[in-house]
Amino acid sequence: MKPTYLLPILPLIAASPAPTSHPSSNHKPNPNAAPGLGALAQRAGLLYFGTAIDNVVLNNTRYTSLAFNRSEFNQVTASNGQKWVHIEPQRNVFNYTLGDQIVDPSKKAGQMRRCHTFLWHNQLPDWLVTGNWTKQELLGILENHIRNEASYYWGDCYAWDVVNEAFNDNGTLRSTIWLDTIGPSYIEHAFRFARRYTSPGTKLYYNDYGIERVNNKSLATQTLVKDFLRRKVPIDGVGLQAHFTVGRSPSYADLRGAQQLFTALGLETALTELDVRLALPGNATAEAEQARIYADATRACVDEEKCVGVTVWDFWDPVSWVPETFPGQGDATLYRQNFERKPAYFAVADVLRAAARNGTRGRTGW
Ligand code: 9MR
């Protein structure tokens, strides 16, 4: 089956409301409308500029007209819809409703997808967490989950985040039901299952936060990758989540160095969950700094030959995960509550435009 992300690019307005012939219609496509970030990313030679999308805002048409517009975002990632708790809420009972609510419209819009995530320690269903499994039982549960979800989304995903957040900041493996029951080999089992059951060519990623600098965590991730390559355990990419904070974010050089831990081994990289939070209430100075951080992160991907693209962890402040998790912080995305684009949006667009002009990467099909 031909993956949808390789289909020839259709006109930019494909995801916009159909134009009507009524003279006063305000739905007429504007030929001068600026290309969105997805379109600019492709011109710059990236595969995509994408966004995470959460199911809770799918009834907001202002939101969905941007989220499912492949000029603005030519790749989408379900923030929650493909996670274990929703997909297999009871043992061996699979429910793809929330995943499909993101995947189906994105297919219609001609967008790519990064699929997220087969194995994590969060958002697991109660039956799984409370079961007192043996190693063999839990491996069987893991294989069954990956087999079902991978088969269901066969051909739909450019990439799968196979294992998410396995390391502690000091580089040791995080104590989870997976590590504690199966042992460290759970990671390679997950990748082998993923290769066995996903469609050929699906990129298999390890995805984590805090690996955007050379540090104990990113070095431990590199050691894992080296070991996998040596033993022919399948892995194609490392996702650097890139949840950043104004005032203490990794620099451009940090991001280049961190990615090179993996690209030097032949893997691809991606910034998979980019957002930049600030102390509330924000102000122009903080927003300018936020714009610089977004731009530097985008540039650190553009300049890295094997970095395939950037995904923001939602583009609209009201659905960002940040304020709930970090009280007093927020405004982390590219769009304000009133859908106005922030300086960060324009800074990212400028980086992509400059890269397209310089043509250092070549184009990816625009
Ligand atoms: O954005 C997600 C949020 O809606 C959920 O409540 C949260 C649960 O832990 O997960 C968020 O997404 C996370 C992603 O899956 C993995 N990396 C960190 C993201 C932010 O917490």
Topology, pairings included?
Blueprint: H1 37-43, E1 48-53, H2 61-67, E2 75-78, H3 84-87, H4 97-108, E3 112-119, H5 126-130, H6 135-152, E4 159-164, H7 177-182, H8 186-197, E5 203-208, H9 216-230, E6 237-240, E7 243-245, H10 252-263, E8 268-279, H11 284-302, E9 307-312, H12 322-325, E10 329-330, H13 343-358
Helix pairs in contact: 1-13, 6-8, 10-11, 11-13
The chain binds ligand 9MR.
**What's the number of helices?**
13
Order of helices and strands: HEHEHHEHHEHHEHEEHEHEHEH
Bound molecules: ligand 9MR
Strand content: 15-25%
- In terms of structural class, how would the helical and strand content be classed? alpha/beta
Model description:
Mean pLDDT is 92; it is low at 1-32. The relative contact order is 0.13. Strands 1-2-3-4-5-6-8-9 form an eight-stranded parallel beta barrel, surrounded by six helices. Strand 5, helix 9 (216-230) and strand 6 (237-240) form a beta-alpha-beta unit. The protein has 13 helices and ten strands. Helix content is 37%, strand content 16%. Bound molecules: ligand 9MR.
Quick structural gist:
This protein is an alpha/beta fold and 366 residues long.
Give the tags.
366 residues; alpha/beta; eight-stranded parallel beta barrel; 13 helices; 10 strands; globular; binds ligand 9MR
